[in-house]
Structures are given as structure tokens and as C-alpha cells.
Amino acid sequence: PQKKVCKTVLKHFDAQYSEELGEQWHSARDVLLNPLSWQYGVLLNRFSDRTNLKQWLAELGYTNLLPQTHPKSQTAHIPLQCFIHQDPVRIPTQSHHPGWLKQYFLLNAASLLPVLSLNLKEGENVLDLCAAPGGKSLAILQTIDILLLLACYSTLTKRNVQRIQFYLKHMNINLAVFFVDVVCITVVSALAAVRPGGVVVYSTCTMSRAENQSVVEAVLASYQGVELLELEQHLIDSLSDNFCFAHFHPSVGQLVIPQKDKTWGPMYVSRLQRIY
Questions:
Q1: Higher pLDDT, 186 or 136
Q2: N or C terminus of the chain with fewer C-beta within 10 Å?
Q3: In whole angstroms, what is the distance from residue 65 CA to residue 71 CA?
Q4: pLDDT for 18-67, tens place per residue?
Q5: Could you tell me which CATH number the domain at 7-274 has?
Q6: How far apart are CA 58 and CA 60, in angstroms?
Q7: Is the pLDDT of residue 134 over 70?
Q8: pLDDT at position 189 over 50
Q9: 152 among known catalytic residues
Q10: Does the CA dihedral 212-214-215-216 come out positive or negative?
Q11: Nearest-CA neighbor of 50 among 155, 142, 169?
């Protein structure tokens, strides 16, 4: 049965997001209130037997969301594969069987944007501080062969981040990338833990300016030795046919907003780099 919508909360959202997002909020509202309109991405598992799987998806009308070669190097293969459908269809979720790997996973395709924005290099270390339920950690493993992936599922506090930082230092592990979906003070802790030149990706699944742009702006204003990294334009261009991006001025990240026939999101992503 469909869950009831709290009219008081909806009224608050209407007031807040109409001001922050303008007309884009009204179409996003319609999508979010209608689960039958939601689309589902099919993330392929590169570690499993996928014989005939792509052909089956193609026959159902699915297409690959991502290019299979890197736009800057046509010979560089992109192992991450996610298939989407233009209609709100959903294939069955595969059950777990001992000794057998699932061929695919269903997810909101916009959740791949934080992973794609990492621009991961082979052999790097990654710490995911918002690994619940673990979709982004899963997508990282489908993207490239990294040296170390640490995924944190427990309650995240500044003390816990500092504890992680302490142990990483004594284990002589230099982190290249952090994933965070937490408050400003923990973003600062993540920046302190990542090595100089490393990247912290701040990502949320909310459309709230207070939890998105305002957090990044506060970090940039209070933390020295950090700069904002724009998401690569070729990445935005390659996804624009299927994702609807919000219009921010000035831009301190990218926000995917669900719209009719493009129901992916919400998903906010911003990249910060530690300079020294």
C-alpha cells in the first residue's frame, strides 16, 4: 500500500523548494509523490557470469547509460555499466544464493554520479564514510581495481572520523579519496585525513540548499588549503540526456533533480581537493 503523505511536511517542502528550485520543484514533486513513475537502473556485476544478459536487456528496451570508452582516450575501456529504460519498468531483483554471484543490482542511476565524479585511478585508496546501504561502494568496485576500499556503516561522528584517521596514519595508508554524506564539521575532518592532493566528494540525496551548497560554502570559508573542483564537463554532457541538473548561480556542485521521464535523483555532488 502507498504510504500516506504528511500534509504539514509537504506544505513546508512546497514553501522551501519553490523558493530554492523554482519551477523545477513542481515537476520534481509530482515524480516523488508517484512511485509508479520511478525508473530503475540495472548495474551489471563485472565479477559474475553475464552471458546473454546484455542481449536480454537490449530486447527489453534498455540502453547503456554510460559510454564504454573514455572521452579523453577512446582506447580506455570503462568497466562500469548501468542500463536504463525510458519507461518506469522494473526487472525482478535477483535473490541471493550461496556460491553464486548476482549478475546485476537495481538502483537509482543518479547514485552513480558521486562515483563517476571521483575519476578514480587504479591502485588508489578510498574511504566511503556514507556506505549505507552500500550502493556507491558497490559501484566503486565495478569501476576500477582499487588498492583499498574502506566502507563505514556505523554511526558517524567527528570522534569516529578522528579514530579512523589515527589508525590509517599508523597503518601508513595514504587516502586519495573520501566519500562523505555528513555534516560540515566531519567534512573538515575528512579533509584533514586525506593526503595533500587528495579529493573529498561530498554527496547527499536531498535537494535542500542548507544540506548541500551551504555546507560546501561553509567548508570553503572556514578551511584553508582546500579548493572546489568542478565536475568534468564531459561527464555532465554525457549524462544530460538522461539526468536533469538544477540551475545554480554560482555553482558549488551539481544537483540531479527528478523530472517527468527522467526520474533519477535527487542526488547532490560536490568535489573538494586538499591543496596542502
A1: 136
A2: N
A3: 14
A4: 999 999 999 999 999 999 999 999 999 999 998 899 999 999 999 999 87
A5: 3.40.50.150
A6: 5
A7: yes
A8: yes
A9: no
A10: positive
A11: 142
